[in-house]
Amino acid sequence: MPYRVQLQNFEGPLDLLLFLIRKNEVEIYDIPVADITQQYLEYLTMIELLDLDNASEFVLMAATLIRIKAQMLLPKPELEDDEEAEDPREELVRRLLEYQRYKEVAWEISDLEKEQRQHFPRSDFTFNFEDDKDVDEEELLGKEVSIFGLMSVFAEIMKRIPPRTEHTVEQIPVTIEEQAEVIMCLVDKQDRVLLTEILQQIKERIIVIVTFVALLDLVKNKRVQLNQNNPFAEIWIRKI
Q1: How confident is the model at residue 82 (pLDDT cuts 50, 70, 90)?
Q2: Where are the domains of the chain?
Q3: Which tops the pLDDT comparison, 11 or 101?
Q4: Whole-angstrom Cα distance, residue 161 to residue 168?
Q5: If both were cysteines, with which of 52, 131, 145, 188 could 149 make a disulfide (CB 3.0 to 4.6 Å apart)?
Q6: Phi first, then psi: what are they for 237, rounded to 5°?
Q7: 142-163+172-240 has which fold?
Q8: 148, containing H or E segment
Q9: What 3 state SS string does 94-113 have?
């Protein structure tokens, strides 16, 4: 039976598109559809490989991108001087902008909530300095990592491991539970550990996949936290 990954705050296809737009440093209003579609399909392969719980939504978006790409390749009809050609990307851009505004409002509310937690009522003179220290450490580590930032590192590691040419049926040498314990042992010994340091030590593609799923499971169960100092920087694994 396949292992299905279910994350409470798992991002959807629009999040993946926004992630790729930021990664490629392009404008939402002028999306290079051919390049973005190719990169999106690469992520879709990983999503289907991991059997993520809402993979069908990503497949639907992939079909939309392919349709837009095909429309942009068609010859444009001749127009009158006062007419403007219809842009096939227009509806997608509108959805992205609307979704981005929604996400920004959600981030602002989340930031306000975190800020409110730092205030104490005037009558409360009991302070937990250990908790204050934890807050400072989180600020030092940076923001939490999106699922797509994690998958970006996973994809780079997978590219470095040459695929096998022969196809043999064999039992997977490790389990998700075993790899989860390997990760926990590493973060127990150190305050935090780089994701790339763990994955680069693995030479088998299947073990990289199992380790990646184990990490997602640890995040889902709130046993570890993933942070990076800025977007697309190194990803740190830290025990909660």
Answers
A1: low
A2: 1-74+88-116, 142-163+172-240
A3: 101
A4: 18
A5: 145
A6: -105, 130
A7: Arc Repressor Mutant, subunit A (1.10.10)
A8: helix 147-160
A9: HHHHHHHHHHHHHHHHHHHH
